[in-house]
Amino acid sequence: MAASSSDLGASAAAPLTSVLLRYLAALLLFGVGAVHLYEFSADHYSVIPIIGDLFAANFAGAVALGLALAVPLEALPFIRSLPLVGRAPHAFVALGGTVFLLGTIIGLIISEQWSLFGFHEYGYRTTVWLALALEAAGVVVLAGFLAGEAGRRRARPAARRR
After folding, report:
1. Residue 101: closest CA among 76, 68, 134, 78
2. Contacts of 37 (CB under 8 A, 6+ apart)
3. Confidence of residue 103 (pLDDT cuts 50, 70, 90)
4. Residue 7 pLDDT > 50, yes or no?
5. Is residue 18 scored above 80 in pLDDT?
6. Model-level pTM?
7. What is the crossing angle of helices 89-113 and 51-70, to 10°?
8. Which residues have CB under 8 Å from 2's CB, separation 6+?
9. Of 41, 89, 142, 147, which residue is least crowded by CB atoms under 10 Å?
């Protein structure tokens, strides 16, 4: 995940804080994916109907979202040409990542308190605490990134009017 000098430059298009938050969010998403892959394989969640598939999908989704956040915009010319998405591809990915992480947290809470697709999680083991910490940190970092992006987009039109 090497950053190009133009990606890390503190330009008006992408301040350094925004880039660092984006990369930190990508790392947190990779961590969430790794924990779910571990539970899928080492904790044998792969044999649990539906839940095993959800853990595999969580791993794949976390890695895909992390990669999409880590890719510099210059590497996405086909995305930049899309009417709405092309204006803020990382912001859309960050929003999707936030929803993804919140959904994962909600799924865990449901499986701890009640039953989720016939599966009931018992007790908070180290991997569960790690997953919760990474997911919560990911939500906070992505919210910070989105707030920065929203503020930057609002400030840009005001600067054009002068």
Report:
1. 134
2. 55, 56, 59
3. very high
4. no
5. yes
6. 0.78
7. 160
8. none
9. 147
Q: How far is CA 70 from CA 8, 15, 80, 132, 157, in A?
A: 12, 15, 16, 22, 27
24-80 pLDDT per residue, tens: 999 999 999 999 999 898 878 888 888 889 989 999 999 999 998 988 766 666 665
Name the residue with tokens 């998403």: 29
Radius of gyration of the chain (CA): 18
Quote the pLDDT of residue 27: 97
Taking 3-state DSSP, the helix, strand and coil percentages for the chain, each rounded to the nearest 5, stand at 75, 0, 20
CA–CA gap between residue 73 and residue 7 (Å, rounded): 8
Helix, strand or coil, per DSSP, at residue 116: strand
Which residue would you say has higher pLDDT here, 4 or 140?
140
**Number of alpha carbons in the 13 Å side-chain half-sphere of residue 32:** 32
Per-residue CA distances from 80 to 34, 44, 150, 162 (Å): 30, 41, 18, 27
